[in-house]
Amino acid sequence: MNQNDTARWIRLGAAAGAIGAYPFLEALWLQVTRPRIHIRGLHPDLEGLRIALLTDLHAGGGTPLWLVRRACRLAMREEPHLIALTGDFADDAVESFDPVLDALAGLRAPLGVWAVPGNHDHTVGIDRWREEVGRRPWLGDLTNRSVTRRVGRARLCIAGVDDYSYGTPSLDALPSPAERDFTLLLAHDPDQAEKARRVADAVSLVVSGHTHGGQVRLPFSGAVLNPAEFDDLYEQGVRRRPWTQVYTSRGVGTGHLPVRLFCRPEVAVLQLTGAPRPARRGAGAVNR
Questions:
Q1: Are the beta carbons of 191 and 241 closer than 8 angstroms?
Q2: Does residue 157 form part of some domain?
Q3: Is residue 284 part of a domain?
């Protein structure tokens, strides 16, 4: 083999190594997304409200705590009015949630930092999760609870439910629809939206995770695996339903293997607006 052939094989080996390493590197490549959530009839005092969504941290497994801390810093740079943490805080093998909760300690927002558990939190120990979350006064446990906050003249209801599969989710704690102008629901699993009734529950927006956006996505075929029951509806991003809207985040951490492919970890900062949705190109009509 001559010198040119040797150099060529070295370059090919380096390229193959880089390709093999990429999914592990993408799993650490956080992306801040800023979706606008168009709400028909949004109270004007809620225009521009920013909700930071962090979910599926899975700390202690393939997700290092420094990545959780970086996700917090990126979220705080966006100056959110409210922060939602929607479950799967830690890997199944951990003995305590304290390390990941300590990594989240820099989170603050005028309307509060609120949390609900996910299926992996139940696996580690839901009583431990509630106890350790409860020791942190800056963090509110919204499991099957709701609180109402005034934003100007608007009544913002912030509610949460237990995990869809492993817990006992309930919306019974919601106040009457006449007592709230906008209802935000924290639910680990986006499937929970299918249990929200149009009139009685009147949920305006569900924020969730659970799917990891598929974690590994292939060109033209999408997610390799989606754990959502309604996987044809909920994978990532915004989904409009006749009775609500759902935002499913790709999450910060990883499950099973510490890799991602065409599915970067996400810090989502949602902004509410009453403006109409832009017309789709070629649609020939304005969206209502």
A1: no
A2: yes
A3: no
Q: How is residue 121 written in tokens?
A: 């939190």
pLDDT tens, residue by residue, 61-104: 889 999 999 999 999 999 999 999 999 999 999 999 999 999 99
Q: Which residues, in sequence order, are CB contacts of 77 under 8 Å at separation 6+? A: none
Counting the structural domains of the chain, the total is 1
CA distances from 65 to 31, 62, 91, 100, 183 (A): 17, 10, 12, 7, 32
CA distance 99 to 185: 26
Contact assessment for residue 65 and residue 103, using Cβ atoms and an 8 Å cutoff? yes
The CATH number given to whatever domain includes residue 208 is 3.60.21.10
CA distance 196 to 203: 7
Distance, CA of 253 to CA of 59 (rounded, Å): 7
The model's pTM: 0.91
Domain of residue 268: give its range.
3-273
Assigned domain for 286 exists: no
